[in-house]
Design a protein that fits this description.
Helix 3 packs parallel to helix 6. By secondary structure, the protein is of the alpha/beta class. It has a 6-stranded mixed beta sheet, with helices on both faces. A hairpin with a 2-residue loop joins strand 1 and strand 2. It has 10 helices and 10 strands. The protein is 36% helix and 28% strand. The radius of gyration is 17 Å and the shape is globular. The structure holds adenosine-5'-triphosphate (ATP). Adenosine-5'-triphosphate (ATP) binds next to strand 2 and helix 1.
Length: 238
């Protein structure tokens, strides 16, 4: 527990009109950690990530990155500082090619290593290399998820926020995506992973948080949560 806290969410509240979707969430992500946030549909996981990146306004509480409040900062500022989100639904630029999408991922950079990094992404995802000239919109769901992850890596993230990367994918593709998430983490990228696939997300996590109806109801290390009878009953179908 001596690692620096990179991301700290404290007492976060977010509302849609009169509906409180997030009701005072507190969580932290330390340097080098992979933290999984799990919970049922509508628990408020995505909303929490949206508040971190400023897509959804914060009603109360705060989000701090590297010890500084993120309130009032835009997506570009965050990416420039290494806080990068891969949204649910991937958000690739459908009318651009794979290579162009990857170049877009480096939009906050002005160094000369962008082409080298594209080659590194192709090393992680050979499929993207094969399809480099193809329009992103014509790729399968799994390929688009790979592209979204590759594009995020192009920003050289310090902290990656990943929203439901396994959503809608075939079992083989789910395996591949979790494998890559674990690999990226091993290479030193800190991650906050939001997932409905609780067993897979907790299996690769250092720590996890369980969200129910807008609140964090349990937290602990990934293995301990995976073995917890309450978690198993509620999220692992046992
Ligand atoms: P899922 O896994 O299904 O995406 P989640 O845990 O990510 O679930 P959220 O998407 O954060 O949950 O939704 C939390 C609550 O806020 C839900 O009750 C949802 O209906 C509501 N909500 C989400 N987005 C909006 C919106 N744009 N307008 C109104 N209510 C919303």
């Amino acid at each position: 527990q001596d690692k620096q806290v990179l991301l700290r969410i404290s007492g976060l509240k977010v509302a849609y009109g009169g509906i409180q979707a997030v009701k005072g969430v507190t969580l932290e992500v330390r340097e080098g950690e992979l933290v999984s946030l799990i919970g049922a549909n509508g628990a408020g996981k995505t909303t929490t990530l949206k508040a971190v990146t400023g897509i959804q306004p914060i009603a109360d509480g705060d989000v701090q990155y590297l010890g500084k409040s993120l309130k009032g900062q835009g997506a570009w500022d965050l990416a420039k500082q290494g806080l990068v989100m891969i949204p649910e639904g991937r958000g690739t630029f459908t009318r651009m090619t794979i290579t162009e999408n990857l170049q877009m991922g480096a939009y906050t950079r002005n160094d000369r290593e962008i082409d080298d990094d594209i080659e590194k992404v192709f090393g992680i995802f050979p499929r993207l290399k094969e399809r480099r000239a193809q329009l992103a919109g014509t790729m399968s769901g799994g390929e688009q998820q790979m592209l979204a992850m590759g594009r995020a890596l192009m920003a050289r993230p310090k902290v990656l926020l990943l929203d439901e990367p396994s959503m809608g994918l075939s079992p083989i593709m789910v395996d591949k995506i979790f494998e890559v998430v674990a690999d990226i983490h091993k290479q030193g990228v800190t991650m906050l992973l939001v997932e409905q696939n609780a067993s897979r997300a907790l299996a690769i996590a250092d720590r996890g948080y369980v969200m129910e109806s807008g609140e964090v109801t349990m937290t602990g290390n990934g293995r301990a949560l995976l073995d917890d009878p309450k978690v198993r009953a509620a999220y692992l179908g046992e």
